[in-house]
Fold:
Amino acid sequence: MADRMRNRERVMSHLTIYLDNQTEKRVRSSAKQTGLSVSRFIARILNDHEKAAWPPEVAQMAGSWPDFPSAEEIREGQPADRTREQF
Structure:
């Protein structure tokens, strides 16, 4: 039974996506540069994106504090931003 459970964890779904030619070339090139298959490269991007996203509970809290100051109120009285140098 444990072997079947391990085998089930390795099963991958098959997914078809449609990309324009330019995007496909960029994906294939980036995957090759990282040494990953296209499938693993795209999976990594999706996993990284998911990890970087705020949990839904945090997004639901937006606006929960009616007395929280606005960005303008927070910046009030602060000096103007300095011009950043160009790269």
